Amino acid sequence: MNITRFIVKLFVSVLLVFLLTNCQNKDKKGEENWIKLFNGKDLTGWIVKIGGHSLNENIHNTFRVKDGLLKVSYDGYEDFGESFGHIFYKNPFSNYILKLQYRFVGEQVKGGQDWAKKNSGVMIHSQSPESMDLNQAFPVSLEVQLLGGIEKPIERSTGNLCTPGMHVTINDTFTTEHCIPSNGPTFYGDEWIDLEIEVHHDSLIIHRINGKEVIKYSKPIFGGEFNTNFQEGNPVKGGYISLQSESHPIEFKNIKLLELKS
User: Fold this and answer.
1) pLDDT for 71-127, tens place per residue?
2) Chain center to CA of 164
3) Residue-number span of the structural domain to which 5 is assigned
4) Which of 49, 168, 249, 261 has its CA 20 to 30 A from that of 123?
5) Does 68 share its domain with 1?
6) Dist. CA 85–CA 135, nearest whole Å
7) Within this chain, do residues 20 and 66 fall inside the same structural domain, yes or no?
8) Domain total for the chain?
């Protein structure tokens, strides 16, 4: 073999090995930076608060883990009533990307509100579970509202924004509207849906569904309905993350968070 050709082939081979190894190391490092909020085995690191009940009183085993999924289930309920609940991750965050997958399953429990059918949410910038009143139904927070389609062809976008106890600015316009629809699609079945929430303190928050941006907003402040003991007008730059229980069964998996540099 020509020595020059041999040297070129050797150089190319070494270069390819270097690039492959470097990429693998970068992928591994990137994956290591993600925090798995849910371990797929139990509710370690999570705190339950259900309206009318004490902290960590997980009535009727509402929040449970089975087959690697975090399930919100109601097979132990005779009637839902006012048992609106949330399960909070133990630590607050302010500057991050949150990723998870969710799907609605089964039928709404007896006693659930009509508007709560195929309705749930991920709360961000939330007050702590310890600070909630005993009978408080919803934490002061920003809700990434998750909706499922009920009857075709009626559209019901998902990835919307609701604002219990807060107001935000959208497209440079301050709004006090409680629920704001996104450009998200409607899903009628029980397919898994990718949700991504990108949060930059109070400067920018983006919701993405299956990788596509559906709404963005900024400058959350305390105010309006459901505000409890928080100074009106104060900016909200961080808080807790929670998953909602609103009477329709829902499942979550692959819940992970990447903290961003300030």
Assistant:
1) 999 999 999 999 999 999 999 999 999 999 999 999 999 999 999 999 999 999 999
2) 16
3) 1-33
4) 261
5) no
6) 10
7) no
8) 2
